[in-house]
Each structure stands twice: as structure tokens, then as C-alpha cells.
Amino acid sequence: MESIRAEKVVKAFGETRALNGVSLEIHPGELFFLLGASGCGKSTLLRCIAGLETPNEGKIFFGDRDVTDLAPHKREAAMVFQSYALWPHLTVAKNISFGLEERKVPKDEIKRRVDEALEMVKMKGYGERSIDAMSGGQQQRVALARALVVRPKCLLLDEPLSNLDAQLRVEMRREIRRIVKEYGLTAVYVTHDQEEALAMADRMAILAGGVIEQLGAPEDIYRNPRSAYVAGFIGETNLLDGQFDHGFVDSIAKWGSIGIEGRVTDESWQPLAGDKVKISIRPEALRICDDGSIVGNVIEKVYLGQRIQYWVETVSGRLQVVELNPQRLYALGDAVKLTVNREDVIFLAK
Amino acid sequence: MKKGYAIGVMASVMVLFAIFFVYPAWTIVSEAFWKKGGGFTLSYVFAVFHDPVYLEGLWNAFLLGITSTMVTLMIAFPLALLGHKYDFAGKKILGVLVLVPLILPPFVGAVGVKEMLGVDGAWNALLIDLGWMDAAHPYDWLANGRFLGIVLMNALHLYPILYMNIAAALANLDPAMEQAAENLGCPPWRRFWKITFPLAMPGVFAGSSIVFIWAFTELGVPLVFDYARVAPVQVYDGIKDLGGNPLPYAIVAIMLAISAVVFAVSKLVIGRSPLGTAPRPKGRSNDVPLKGIRSYMVAGVFLLLFLVASIPHVGVIFLSCSNDWYQTVLPNTLTMRHFDEALGNSLVVPSIKNSLYYASVATVIDLILGLAIAWVVVRSKIRGRGLLDGLVMLPLAVPGLVMAFGYLALSQPGKPFAFLVGADGNPALLLIVAYAFRRLPYIVRSAVAGLQQSNPVLEEAARSLGSTPARSLRKIAIPLIGANLAAGAILAFAFAMLEVSDSLILAQQTEHYPITKAIYTLLSTLGNGEQLAAALGLWAMVFLSVAIMGAAIIGGKRGGLFKV
After folding, report:
1. What is the C-alpha separation between B498 and B516, in angstroms, rounded?
2. A99 and B466: CB-CB below 8 Å?
3. What SS3 class is residue B508?
4. Which of B460, B466, B480 has its CB closest to that of A89?
5. Which residue of B465, B469, B480 is in closest CB contact with A102?
6. ipTM value
7. Are the Cβ atoms of A72 and B455 closer than 8 angstroms?
8. Fewer CB within 10 A of the terminal residue: chain B, N end or C end?
């Protein structure tokens, strides 16, 4: 168990800067997520941590140790690759025992630990099979076992579930989290799947354009996004163009002719009356009720069983509304009134 | 990979290349441009163009190159296409059998062809027996068709190179590309012209350029056919006595320039092709299983080609075990005595030992150098790795003859390479170096192809599990590309065993002769020299067919062999 720290890491490939001064600290024993759209630099950061890329500038620390120039094989940071990178010329057991052989672990212990690892990923008895005979889910678990069996100081996972079908993915999420917590590993997990991150992460960092947009616990980021990008990337949101105004007690913004009370999450930003702002309202934060102040008509709906999605046309524009466990269904054209808690309305700079 | 290591490898390879490749090549070529008293001149080159005999020789060599390439292409392309498109009876075995012609040095094959098609050969004997030809006036097929005979020998020997190139290019095509065209309503014939053929062009050009340069500079076959009016033979005759006439050197310079242009053009065409960036195909090939008569017809095409290509081999086999084969369809009596006698001949046993020694040491050097070069080219990101990649391919563009004379000139007493020649004139080191640099491209190509096809993530995974770079190379990368390496090594070895130019020119004492020189010497020996040569050729054939089939089976599927 070790902390991982990145200090102002810059990595450029030719003209493009994949990482543009990234700093973060991952606590010991934490399951930390790097999240972002493709090309945001998240995989590059992970590969810098693994030592597979050397940063152009900045430093990387494991605990107090500067590992920036340390060769990958000396870092004890085992990685699970997106493509699994299982060696086709070795059996399942040989793949798993590879790292132990490199560490000159005695033969009988290798056998014991490989068996343990196979059991842990529920692959007991598959040791002598060839890699090609494994399904995608099995290969994923072999890759995980291969990384875990060496008892690494930290575990690095690069979109490990992206090649699996939806059901298996949900199952493996729980498995990976269980194993990471059981072994007390510091784990860094790269994904573009925000649901995966919300479901599994202790904390996460959202990257965009080679910099960290926001870093925090999943619920914090979901509740208090500090930029429109983050608000839109994590979960769904209504992102409205508004004009800031000061109320008597609270902040208010005008969305067209509609005034909405809300709050500012970015402490470094103090909007003035008349400033242009983005207003972020989660669809599930909007409620349909008789004393709502925002009026409109249902123009589209999607019924999803546990919830229903409506698009409501108001005088200022369109809003997406999600109702959970809907009791009353509205038809297209029905007039509805909407209300929202002040806490659920976020004013953002951009 | 550490940058320093990559730069070190590149620097040492560049230096080795400068010393053992550029320097000897330049030594010969520069003779063409330096006046006796010193000073640059182009007059020798112009003199060649004003000498009708030399001009005819160059023109003939060029024609031989072009015609051989065309004939080779006409054989290889349909064959590769059939193999790509269809699954037929005995496809695997036939696919390997058609590679067999590679196992015989073409000039030995030429001896066999002479026995079969000569005035007093088997073919005329058969025609006379059938009463289709007047025994008193036999037709001299070879004298009247000497040019075509050489073309045929070249084509029958070289088509496997082109076949493998085109087959590899076709195999690397994503089946989805053709399926997409099909899906969009493109009929098979148009699909071939619009999709398959353009995408196979890199393979065609890569193979054709090798075949052209090979045929253009071929020395052995014209020598055996007594075809003196062709540039390589003129050079051979002209330079045999070192010094003196500068015109042969000028011919060499011209041939080198033509080879280099052909090579550069083919590189350019390949470089422009979009195939280089296309993703490797995933999933299964889409070859159509043929049933019944059509399956056997396609198999028949392969078999027929194999049989035709085997004519020289059959000739050599018969010759090697004939007592007397003169004006008859088959030898009158068969004997095994030439094999025994060959093994007893003072030339034969040492020559086999010598060739084995020269070729295997050269192959080991090639393996080490080739792997290091491929590693730098594929896995490092240092500047100039593309240059390195192109540099190691150059030996394919330089005629063996040029290199051979370069080495010969530089290894004279007092010259820089004299240290490569042993005290008693033993050319072992010299030949090993010559073989190694000539055959290096094959190993580099196969190692590069292997590394490109194996995902670097597989090595990174080992690194992240605590493996040193050296160990991840040994335990992961080399086993994964082992098949490519083995295939490249076997080819390099086989071609080193068959090497003609260096072997004929650099080995001076009989006890140091390699196989090819021994065969050539036996051919001109009176008595049963030809039969002995054939017997030795047969030994070499058996030996090399095992090697080539091994290479084809190990590495053929993966393609990439012989690629420029």
C-alpha cells in the first residue's frame, strides 16, 4: 500500500500535449479513477505511472520515492491492459506465474499462489488451458489474476472492462472493487465510462485536454460539478444559457424569462449581475407538481420502466425531466408545472 | 527501451555497413569514375555506351531482367490469387511444393535443363522416338532459344519469391475490404480490379523488384548456357584479371545505378500505398472451399507448375544417377556410383563442410544483427530508424557480382580487408562477412514483420510485472516472433548455401571451395564431371528442400518473407 503522487506532469507526443501539467495525489489503499473522453490524456497518465512513458516534465512519486526515471520493471506497479495482453504462447497458469518467476519465488510457492489467484478470480482448474481457448470474460480475469498474484504495491487498470458485455461488466465491477479492497491495494483505474467510475471509485479525477477538470469523490462531483464540461460528462444534465442576477437572499439567474434560484460551486468564481452563466439542472432534480413555477408542455417521452423521461417545452426552451417510479403518466401535449430545489441548480462559468 | 541502447545499435550497424557494404561497393563503382592517373571522369561510362558489344550486353541483361520478371509475374500472380481465393484439395502441401524451385541454384538447374532440352537431350530423343523429328537433323532448342531458356530458368527459380510476396500481401488484406465491396454490389471481376489488385500492388512491386535485380545481375545461368553477350558475364570475364580494363567497372556502375533506380521506384510505390497504414485483418479469411472437379482443377494448376518447375531438378536427378545419357529419353542404365564417387572426390566433402560452416556462421551473425536492427526499427522512437530500415535493405539492390569484386579488390595483400583472409589464403572470414551482409535483409524483414505483428503491449505487460528489458525480450518477444526469426534464418542460410557470385570469385583454393564453386568446377571437369556435379547438386537439393519446407511451414503463413 503506497500513495502515488504526480507533480506537474507534462507529456508531449510531437506537437500534441497529451498531459499539460497534471498534479494529483492518490491515497494509500484508494481506488482512484481517471475519467475522460478519448484523447483526454488519461491513459497517458496511467502509462506514466506505470513507467511505460517518461514524462517530458514533472515528477511521479510512489510514497516518498521519486520514480520518474525508474524502469517499469522496478516499480512494482502491475498493470491490467485494455487488450489484456495475455501471452498466446503461454498457458493460463504460465501467464499468471510469469511475474512470480521474475521475482524468483520458490517453485512450490508459485504453484500455491497461482492456484490461489485462479480461485480468487473464479477460474480454478483452468490453469493448463491455452489463452486462445478462453472467452473475453475469462481472459479479463486471467489478466487480473496475473497482475494481482505478484502482490503489487499498486494496481493499474486501463479500461479493463471495455471489451466485455454489459452484464459481465457489472459483475466484474464488484469483483474488482472487492479484490482491491480485500488486498488493500492502491489502484488507479482508467475508464471513459462514467457509470463505472461512479459505481466503483473512492475518488476520481476528470481529465480534459491534458489537464484535470475536477477531482473528488463521485457524489461530490455529481452533486457539485465545477464546470459545464464535468456537469455534462458525469451523468446527464440540462445545460441552459442564462444571465446571472442577485436576488434578495440567494443567487438567481434568468433563463430567458424564467428566473431560477441556484448556487455557485466554483469558489474561485464570483459572477456579477448581468454575467452570462451556464445553468446545470439534473433531469431527476426537476419535479412535476401542481405548484411548480416553470410551465410547459410535454413534447416527447421515453418510458424506461423504472423511470420515465419527458422533454418539456417551456417559453425559454426545452427541459429534460426524469421521474422515478412514476405514478402518473403524462401524455404528449399535456401541460405540466415543474419545480426544482435551489440546491440542485448549479451556476457555472463555462 | 533505453534511447542510448537504440542509438548504440544504430551507430554500430551504420559503421559495420559503411565498412563491409558501402566501402567494397564503392571501391568497385569508383573504378569506373577514376582515371588511371587520378581525377574524376565519366569517359569510361560513355565508352561503354559507345562499345556495341558492351551495349548489347547491357541491353540483353536488361531484357533478361524485364522478361524474366514478366514471366515470373505471369506465373506467380494467378497462383497467389488462386491460393488466396480458394480452398482446394491438398492446398497445404501444394502451397509448399510450389516453393521447391528455390532449392536449386539456377545454374545447376540449367545443367539439368541442358540434359533435358539440349540437341542430344531427352526431349529431342522423345520426339525422335515418336517419329516427329528427323534424327539426322535434331533441332537445337537451346541454341535457338538461349535467351528464352535463361528467362525460363530465372522464372522457374524466382517465381516463389514473387508468389510469397503477393500471397503475403493478399493474406494481410482485411477480408472485410472485399466483403464490403461485395456488400455494396460489386461483382467478383470488378472487385478484383478495383479492390484486390490495387491493394496487392505493394506485394507485386516488392517481389518484382527483387526478381528483376536478381535476373538482371544473374551470372550463373548465362555462364552455363554459354551466353556471353550479357553484361554480368562480360563483367565476370573482364574483371577476372584485376586491374587493366576499366570498362567492366563502368558496366558495374551502370548496372548498380539501374538496380538502385528500380529498387527506389518500387520503394516509392510501396511507400505511397495506403496498405501500410491499414489495420491488420482480424477474423478468418474468406477463401471459398471448392468441391469436386473444380477443386481438383485448381490443385492441378499448382501441381502442373510444380512439375514444370521441377524439370531442371528431374534433369539433375537423372544426370546424377546416369551411366550414359545421350540421345535417349531416359538414361540407359542407372547407377548410384556418382554419389559415392562424389563423396570420395577431393572437392566435394570439404565443399559441403565449408558451405555449412560459412553459411551457419553468417546466419548466426545475421540473427543477432537482424534482431537488434528490427528491435530499433520497430520499437524505438529514435530519429533515423527509417534510414536504418532502408539501409539494411540495400544489399538486395546491389548485384552480388559487384560486392564480390569489391571484396576481392579489398582483400588483396596490403589492402584494408586483407586481415579477413587467413594466412594460407583461407577466405572463410571474407565469405562469412560477404554472405552475412548479402542475406541480412531476409532476417531483418522477417524480424520486423514479426515485431510489427506482435503487440508491444505484450512486452509492456512483462515489464509491469517486473521483467527487465532483456528478459522480456528473451521470454516474451523472441518466443512470439520465433517463427518469423526461424523462417528468416532458414532462408538466409539456404541462400547463403546457394550463393554464387561471392563463392565463385572469393574462394581461390580448392580446399576452401563452397558447394556452388565445387559444382561449377566439377561442371568443367572432363570425364564424369557433370554427373558428379549433378550428384553434389542433388545432395544440396535434398538438404535445402528440408530447410525451405521448414521455413515455409514455420513462417509462410505469417507472410512477410521476401518483402522489401
Report:
1. 6
2. yes
3. coil
4. B480
5. B465
6. 0.70
7. no
8. N
